[in-house]
Amino acid sequence: MQAKDAAQTGTHQFQAEVAKLLHLMVHSVYSDRDIFLRELVSNAADACDKLRYEAIGKSELLRGDAELRITLTPDKAAKSLTVGDNGIGMSREELIENLGTIARSGTQAFMEKAKASEGDVRLIGQFGVGFYSAFIAAHKVDVISRRAGEDKAWVWSSEGEGTFTVDEAADAPARGTRIVLHLKDDASEFLEDWKLEQVVRAYSDHVAHPIMLAIDKDTSRQINQASAIWTRSKSDISADQHKEFLADLAGTAEAPAVTLHYGAEGRNEYRVLLYVPGERPFDLYDPERRGRQKLYVKRVFITDDAELLPAYLRFVRGVIDSEDMPLNLSREMLQNNPQVAAIRKAVTNRVLAEIKKLADSDAAAFARLWETFGPVLKEGLYEDMERRDQLFEIARFRTTKSESTTLKDYVSALQANQTAIYYLTGDDAGKAARSPQLEGYRSRDIEVLLLTDPVDSFWVRTALGFEGKPFKSITQGAADLDLIPVKNEAKVPEADASAVGTLIAAMKQALGDKVKDVRKSSRLTDSAVCLVNDSEMDRTLERLLSKQKTTGVTLSAPVLEINPVHPLIAKLAAKAKASGSTPEVTDAAWLLLDQAHILEGEPLADPTAFAARLASLMGKMFG
Ligand code: ADP
Ligand code: MG
Questions:
Q1: Phi/psi at 354 (nearest 5 deg)?
Q2: Cβ pair 47, 71 in contact under 8 A
Q3: What separation in Å is there between the alpha carbon of 202 and the centre of ligand 2?
Q4: Is 430 exposed, middle or buried (0-12, 13-18, 19+ CB in 10 A)?
Q5: Which among 399, 543, 536, 561 is positioned nearest to 478, based on CA atoms?
Q6: How confident is the model at residue 242 (pLDDT cuts 50, 70, 90)?
Q7: Would the CB of 101 count as within 6 Å of ligand 1?
Q8: What is the pLDDT of residues 124-162, one digit of tens each?
Q9: Spatial separation of the C-alpha atoms in residues 95 and 424, rounded to whole Å
Q10: Could you give the C-alpha distances from 49 to 42, 153, 479, 521, in angstroms and in order?
Q11: By alpha-carbon position, which residue is closest to atom 21 of ligand 1?
Q12: What is the pTM of this model?
């Protein structure tokens, strides 16, 4: 038995999630396994960036070896490929943590996707589980590392099955990391110069550090351009290079939907290369909602945690490189830095303008972008008051009349006397479109927005309106439809008004505090009843919040609206007028209320009573 502390060396177990992931890597068949090299080169480049940053205040870290680089060394005799860097390196603790015991955010997402696609892990890079992809090509991996500024070096070693070892290394680089891949038999192509060169050119050409291919023990030659891609002129960057740079930044395989590349001059000088990815990055819905744009100062990587864009633009990936911020800026100082604030403001506006430009110039491409990132962009509608109108200009909505419309188009087609922008929230557009509450709006040819993203329930409550028209939920409060005439519909005679009054009184009495009110509806044409809220929230939002215990919100008693032109209501009204609140009227009131709850997808307070009433009613049908 090893004491806890001694367990720092010797054999370690992979964390269960990591072990599963590795099992998948080791045993799957890959159509596109070149990407492991991209992942390892990307890590090596990150390590060089991190060292350069740490060396800003501690130049001794660079002593003796200031030229940061990545070296690929194929060894045909040993059947191994070594990916080396003279970057930051890893301490013993870092080796254990980074390469085996802490599952990274993408692991779970990756496992789910891999399971769904039956082990097809082509899209591995999407999930930020890069290092482990080494086991696609290697049956054994040794990671030999010496952290900058430390004396001791360590070797991490594993065959990818359950355990890894960590021991002191005898032969190690003076600084940085050497990853030795003992290649599988069928991976010997990665011993060939042409293959390595081809993969680097395809996937890693944007890497700003030199990537060297070792020719023999003493010579190597550079196989990438090694100039930061964002410093190159626009015309020198091919579509493929943009795509690969984005793949490295976001792990996505699609070409960018929007590329924004420019230099700002004047009081703040900086270069921007940002992308809207062509698909969702795996970490888009991280609860942290962190942006991941990288801040560089004069080509030195500072941080990807500077909040260079607001959270609702966190899907935008790329680099901002400042010419005039101080290099020795600590990450903490960035928080209240006025230059960062100025850059954030200017770049946010540029990004939104660029998205708008796409909306105006290429409807199909924009539709894809909105489909992919619309729900995130809409978070800005309640977080960024200042740019709400800008966001309203690009937002697209599904409505009862259209798959996708703008608010501008909506308000330009209002019915006479229509004073509000009507909306219905729900989880599912198809289901929402069948809601009884819509009937009265349909019969008046009034368009209703169908809002089905969770975020919708929130922004509609804070948004003041658009072009002077307030947003109004069709499941909240009284419907103000009386001034708008019904179109193309034979006027069905309403039930006798005094009979309806008696029925309403009888229903109120029967249902007690299970309803806030019973009233005549103008929003129904075909259905007999529906529920609406008279409280502060509309019914969908209240239902959404009541499902989360922590909110303290409970679903309030609804208003039951009855449709006076519905034959059932007319008959019930006549019955109530003739004989008052008989047991039949009471049963009918309960059945109507329960049925309305069911239509809303709400649980019944007393399903047993519902079943008994229904059975008794059916009994009478056959009696
Ligand atoms: P990611 O790069 O998304 O963080 P990886 O699985 O690729 O995930 O790498 C895991 C971690 O291991 C990295 O975050 C880094 O801390 C560490 N690491 C991997 N390769 C190196 C390297 N060559 N030098 C220093 N640290 C490394
Ligand atoms: Mg990585």
A1: -70, -40
A2: no
A3: 17
A4: exposed
A5: 561
A6: very high
A7: no
A8: 555 656 898 899 899 999 999 999 999 999 999 999 988
A9: 52
A10: 10, 20, 61, 66
A11: 43
A12: 0.82
Question: How many angstroms separate the alpha carbon of residue 94 from the centre of ligand 1?
Answer: 10
Give residue 40 CA to ligand 2 midpoint distance, Å: 7
Element (H, E) at 164: strand 163-168
Residue 26: name the closest of 190, 184, 163, 166 by CA: 184
- Which two structure tokens, joined as six digits, stand for 582? 């008989």
What's the CA angle centered on 284, arms 278 and 290, to 5 degrees? 125
Which residue, judged by its Cα, is nearest atom 16 of ligand 1? Answer: 98
Local structure of 467: helix, strand or coil: coil
Which residues have their alpha-adjacent CB atom under 5 A from ion ligand 2? 43, 130
Three-state secondary structure call for residue 48: helix
The DSSP output letter for 101 is: I
- Distance from C-alpha of 206 to C-alpha of 244, rounded to nearest angstrom: 8
φ/ψ (deg, to 5) at 559: -90, 130
User: C-alpha 475: how far from its chain's center?
Assistant: 29
Q: How far is CA 216 from CA 71, 176, 196, 459, in A?
A: 12, 21, 15, 63
Spatial distance between the Cα atoms of 451 and 436, rounded to a whole number of angstroms: 16
Residues 6+ apart with CB under 8 A from 392: 381, 407, 463, 466
CA atoms within 13 A on the CB side of 544: 15
Give one DSSP letter per residue of 364-432, joined into a string: HHHHHHHHHHHHHHTTHHHH-GGGHHHHHHH--B-BSS-SSB-HHHHHHTPPTT--SEEEEE-S-HHHH
Beta bridge partners of residue 562, listed in sequence order: 520, 529
Ligand 1 close to Cβ of residue 106 (< 6 A): no
**Residue of minimum CA distance from atom 17 in ligand 1:** 98
CA 176 to CA 17: how far, in whole Å? Answer: 27
Residue 43 Cα: closest atom of ligand 1: 20
H/E stretch holding 211? strand 211-214
395: closest CA among 430, 369, 425, 420? Answer: 369
**Cβ(148) – ligand 1 distance below 6 Å:** no
What pLDDT, in 10s, does the model give residues 436-479?
999 999 999 999 999 999 899 889 988 889 999 999 999 988 87
Ligand 1 centroid distance, CA of 304 (Å): 15
Cα distance between residue 481 and residue 431, in whole Å? 23
